[in-house]
């Protein structure tokens, strides 16, 4: 009876040792995955930071150009544009091509095009966007 009990305990110990070995192998595999993932994260963080620097640089150039361009535009037109941007939250300038507003894509009749052209600046009768002929 004692031999049977010892044999059972030895089998249990062997089972636990096998579980320990498989668990240790799994832990090593997961640690390797964590190391690889951390390295990828660090690399991607660097790439993202570099891209943000490039975007900020491009924005600074565009802001400088905007400052120069704004001085060439009539103040009334800028006020109209800014007012429309706040209210419309989208396109506020559209090209008028073949009687179609480039901002709202609705057709204007010949009479409506004529009416819009009389305004300063020309504006779409449907969406009130500034029209560029």
Model description:
By secondary structure, the protein is mainly α. The chain folds into two domains: 1-72; 74-133, no CATH class. The chain has helices at residues 2-70, 75-88, 110-118, and strands at 93-97, 100-101, 130-132. The protein has a three-stranded mixed beta sheet, with no helix packed on it. The chain is elongated and about 110 Å long.
Looking at this protein, list some descriptive labels:
3-stranded mixed β-sheet, 133 residues
Q: Tell me the radius of gyration.
A: 35 Å
Q: Within the largest sheet, what's the order of strands?
A: 2-1-3
> What's the overall geometry?
elongated
β-sheet strand percentage = 5-15%
Task: Tell me roughly what share of residues is in helical segments.
Answer: 55-70%
Give the ordered list of helices and strands: HHEEHE
- The overall average pLDDT, rounded, is 91
Count every helix, treating DSSP H or I runs of 4 or more residues as helices.
Answer: 3
CA distance, first residue to last residue: 104 Å
Stretches where pLDDT falls below 50 for ≥5 residues? Answer: none
Largest sheet: 3 strands, mixed
Compute the number of structural domains: 2
Number of E strands: 3
- By secondary-structure content and strand pairing, the structural class works out as mainly alpha
In short:
The chain is mostly helical and 133 residues long.
Task: Walk me through the topology.
Layout: H1 2-70, H2 75-88, E1 93-97, E2 100-101, H3 110-118, E3 130-132
Parallel strand pairs: 1-3
Antiparallel strand pairs: 1-2
């Amino acid at each position: 009876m004692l031999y049977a009990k010892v044999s059972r305990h030895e089998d249990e110990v062997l089972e636990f040792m096998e579980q320990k070995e498989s668990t240790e192998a799994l832990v090593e595999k997961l640690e390797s995955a964590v190391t690889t993932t951390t390295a990828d994260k660090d690399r991607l963080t660097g790439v993202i930071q570099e891209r943000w620097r490039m975007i900020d640089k491009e924005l600074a150039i565009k802001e400088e150009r905007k400052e120069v361009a704004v001085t060439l535009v009539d103040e009334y037109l800028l006020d109209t544009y800014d007012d429309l941007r706040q209210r419309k939250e989208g396109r506020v300038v559209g090209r008028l091509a073949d009687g179609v507003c480039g901002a709202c894509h609705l057709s204007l009749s010949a009479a409506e095009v004529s009416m819009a052209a009389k305004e300063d600046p020309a504006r779409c009768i449907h969406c009130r966007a500034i029209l560029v002929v």
